[in-house]
Amino acid sequence: xxxxxxxxxxxxxxxxxxxxxxxxxxxxxxxxxxxxxxxxxxxxxxxxxxxxxxxxxxxxxxxxxxxxxxxxxxxxxxxxxxxxxxxxxxxxxxxxxxxxxxxxxxxxxxxxxxxxxxxxxxxxxxxxxxxxxxxxxxxxxxxxxxxxxxxxxxxxxxxxxxxxxxxxxxxxxxxxxxxxxxxxxxxxxxxxxxxxxxxxxxxxxxxxxxxxxxxxxxxxxxxxxxxxxxxxxxxxxxxxxxxxxxxxxxxxxxxxxxxxxxxxxxxxxxxxxxxxxxxxxxxxxxxxxxxxxxxxxxxxxxxxxxxxxxxxxxxxxxxxxxxxxxxxxxxxxxxxxxxxxxxxxxxxxxxxxxxxxxxxxxxxxxxxxxxxxxxxxxxxxxxxxxxxxxxxxxxxxxxxxxxxxxxxxxxxxxxxxxxxxxxxxxxxxxxxxxxxxxxxxxxxxxxxxxxxxxxxxxxxxxxxxxxxxxxxxxxxxxxxxxxxxxxxxxxxxxxxxxxxxxxxxxxxxxxxxxxxxxxxxxxxxxxxxxxxxxxxxxxxxxxxxxxxxxxxxxxxxxxxxxxxxxxxxxxxxxxxxxxxxxxxxxxxxxxxxx
Length: 594
Known about the structure:
The protein contains 23 helices and seven strands. It is an alpha+beta fold.
């Protein structure tokens, strides 16, 4: 059986359909409640802290969280634990530096904040383009992950899963905008938390009954039982140690039907449709795109897992991207505009940290168990499917099918909720900025609200169709890696803009534009090179794969230096705005003073 067909097709398909139907049904509540522009963009700023925290948890726990983290741990070991740590700790930075002042700004979107702070349509335009770019980059792994999950369930083309998620998201967002997805995402957080936590109980019982084997005990990933897999795509595999296995298909362009032997470091090209049989005890060859660790690397921090160059630099750069990139993610920030006030925004962030901390206890367990019971996923490169594969391997029979189906439901909830938040944030910017004639004009009057909502709905379709088309192209970057690149781009652009815009009155429009362009262009170039031509070796590969360590300081220094050179152009109303950003609600201030 192919390791990509690890879920009972009947129960798995039912799980996908139930989640999709439930998502549309819950989202339909927003159709009855959403009437104004404010309803569609920020749910009329009336979402309570607990409800908003659940919704944030729902949209933030994406494909990278539900599937990607476990796949990274399976392949790369303990160094990959920085991903869940960074995903959670980023909210602590956001809580301290941004949450309350951003809510007090009264903005609808990030470009709204940029314009009100710097009184510049040029800054707004650059910010709008970056929001759309980051949103689409983050949407790609959601759509690709949906295709991967549906293929795991049914064997259908990955395009089917991507289209299914796109259609459900469009229906929800068109129905009620932020109102609709708030209800949906709060429900989906608890579905995802249940889906990933409940199977762990049964998996750990099965692991304990098996004697509790250590995932790092044997050093090299080794097939515990005989496994046969048919490749659904061409794969270049490399042997971390001498390995002999049976092949029926095309190897390096020649037909082979029998055993082949690979020496350490030797690689071969296996064609699509090739059937590979790994006898029990065989060292598993690794697909070339997978950064798989071997030996003690898996359990040793900063050991250069998977041959990654300069692991110390890569780790610190990843930490920087995750810690500071969270505050620059458009679908995260738009949530803080929905709180009633700054105090509620801080409470929301505190609750979110707790919810994320609970969830991220579980993906590493799947990764560690996958190292023992599903190392053959390294052969196909589909390590992201380990969460879905484990129940059928450790808990055979109907119970395993039910647990797998629950995980499929949770995975689809992850794709739907994160994609919904991203689409709302991107559509909001497209409709408010890139599809409006007058960026500097006031918010739409009541008589124009119908037109504004209509524009929002058109922008929703655009926000989904573009990344959907891109997702159908083949990518060699894993789910969590793609999301990590989105974090690096966000950290290199909006993090400096928000921190300096909120805490330094000397920021100017010229400085902001220069910093956004410096950070955005450099990080985008690194992201593009990694996704299209990577991975690279040596320092080049390290700097491009994890660019935040140099792109974030570059953006900050550029903003500060250019602002100092143009200090005479600080907006006249900066003092009044800074008072509003930092004065708690309920405190009376003299708004005529600066």
